[in-house]
């Protein structure tokens, strides 16, 4: 297993409630001369749904359970059945319920992001300056990248537009 003392020590801290201090492309630039070609390719191809790479397989199991629980609870809230069987996890169920009861979709995403960061920290555990830390950092960056796609003002405007449309339909009845 490779050690990346300088690389990992030089990366800025990532926080679920903070800004994205480095882009994924900047991160890849930092990694290019410090990791093997094979590891670099895994990092370059990394998505939140990836299953290959150090720590990534463990993340994929967690992320799959989280996604299935989200789909299950959303289906139940809409009064629809959910046909896929899956192993339920009590803590994931509680976090998803809290996210789905948030006052708006952005707040729900923040609840999920905080939980995902905690899960990654747990998966990384006591690893220091190795592939687990590097790939955990990469996944956190991907999560922050996704979070940055949400814009509060655009989201509120879209919600207001949808809500106004629903109100007009109700009034026309």
SSE arrangement:
Blueprint: H1 5-10, H2 24-32, H3 37-45, H4 56-77, H5 90-100, H6 105-124, H7 131-148, H8 152-172
Task: Give an account of the 3D structure.
It is globular and about 65 Å long. The model has no long low-confidence stretch (mean pLDDT 89). The chain is mainly α and 173 residues long. The longest helix has 22 residues, at 56-77. It contains eight helices and no strands. Helix 4 (56-77) crosses helix 5 (90-100) and helix 5 (90-100) packs antiparallel against helix 6. The protein has one domain (14-172). It is 67% helix and 0% strand. It has helices at residues 5-10, 24-32, 37-45, 56-77, 90-100, 105-124, 131-148, 152-172.
The number of distinct β-strands equals 0
Q: What is the element string, with H for helices and E for strands?
A: HHHHHHHH
> What is Rg?
19 Å
Number of domains: 1
List keywords for this structure.
single chain, globular, 173 residues, mainly alpha
Q: Can you describe this structure in just a few lines?
A:
The protein is mostly helical.
């Amino acid at each position: 297993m490779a050690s990346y003392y300088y690389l990992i020590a030089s990366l800025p801290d990532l926080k679920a409630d903070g800004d994205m201090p480095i882009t994924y492309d900047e991160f890849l630039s930092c990694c290019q001369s410090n990791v093997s070609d094979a590891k670099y390719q895994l990092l370059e191809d990394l998505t939140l749904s990836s299953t290959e790479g150090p720590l990534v397989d463990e993340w994929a199991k967690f992320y799959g359970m989280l996604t299935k629980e989200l789909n299950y609870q959303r289906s139940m809230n809409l009064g629809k059945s959910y046909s896929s069987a899956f192993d339920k996890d009590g803590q994931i169920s509680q976090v998803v319920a809290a996210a789905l009861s948030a006052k708006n979709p952005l707040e729900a995403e923040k609840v999920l992001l905080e939980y995902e960061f905690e899960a990654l920290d747990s998966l990384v555990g006591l690893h220091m300056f190795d592939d687990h830390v590097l790939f955990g950092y990469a996944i956190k960056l991907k999560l922050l990248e996704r979070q940055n796609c949400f814009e509060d003002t655009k989201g509120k405007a879209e919600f207001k537009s949808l809500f106004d449309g629903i109100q007009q339909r109700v009034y026309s009845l």
